[in-house]
Design a protein that fits this description.
Blueprint (H helix, E strand, L loop, with lengths): L8 E6 L5 H13 L3 E6 L9 H8 L17 H4 L6 E7 L1 H8 L6 H8 L4 E5 L3 H5 L1 H12 L3 E2 L3 E4 L5 E5 L3 H14 L3
Helix pairs in contact: 1-2, 1-8, 4-7
This protein binds flavin mononucleotide.
The site of flavin mononucleotide (FMN) has 16 residues, from helix 4.
Length: 187
């Protein structure tokens, strides 16, 4: 376990993938490592995992809405990345990677990524045929060229009976990658 996550503020974005359940373990590991974790769920992610799963794990409210009622003085897309050390999107869907690579901010998590001034990391998760798709690869390459760190995906068993490269990296590996990246970042 990296000591460099202790006391750090980690924004954990979760998108609509079967691997979303692994994000709960990731959140737990980050909290155990001493990080303050702010979780943002996309609407699709909230169909796989609930804010009720994450809130007790991170001991904080969970962000799901761009337009909150009543309107807060500081909108969530600015409050969430404020003072953050890193934004990690795990799992990152093909759809989200496409939106991010286009610089769109049409949902809360995408807008948080645009507003963040700290390092961004994504852990893609998708069917291997999606990952191999030239359009997805172009979008990932674009993100890399913008300085985004990509961890995985790994080769292995996917949902259903398929096997191939598309499996999200394990939460422990993602924590290690976050720690390694934060060690290199001067605070
Ligand atoms: C059962 C199910 C599993 C899915 N798993 C994935 C996945 O692992 N990766 C992916 O890129 N999309 C997956 N999708 C499609 C996404 O949920 C869909 O593209 C959605 O628009 C993603 O939205 P978001 O990126 O805003 O979270 C899945 C859809 C369903 C119904």
């Amino acid at each position: 376990m990296h000591t460099s996550i202790g006391g750090r503020v980690v924004v954990l974005g979760v998108t609509g993938s079967i691997a979303a359940y692994k994000a709960a373990t990731l959140a737990r590991l980050l909290v155990k490592g001493g990080a303050q974790v702010r979780v943002v769920l996309t609407p699709a992610a909230a169909r796989f995992v609930s804010a009720h799963t994450f809130a007790p794990l991170v001991g904080r409210r969970i962000y799901t809405e761009m337009f909150e009622e009543p309107p807060p003085a500081v909108p969530a897309h600015l409050e969430v990345p404020h003072g953050a050390d890193i934004v990690v999107v795990a799992p990152a869907s093909a759809d989200f990677i496409g939106r991010m690579s286009a610089g769109l901010g049409d949902d809360l998590l995408a807008a948080v990524c645009l507003a963040a001034t700290c390092p961004l990391m994504i852990a893609p998760a998708m069917h291997h045929q999606m990952w191999a798709n030239a359009m997805v690869q172009r979008n990932v390459a674009r993100l890399v060229s913008c300085g985004v760190t990509v961890i995985g995906p790994e080769q292995g068993e996917l949902a259903g009976r398929d096997e191939g490269r598309g499996r999200m990296s394990e939460p422990e590996e993602i924590v290690d990658a976050i720690g390694a990246l934060l060690e290199r970042v001067v605070v």
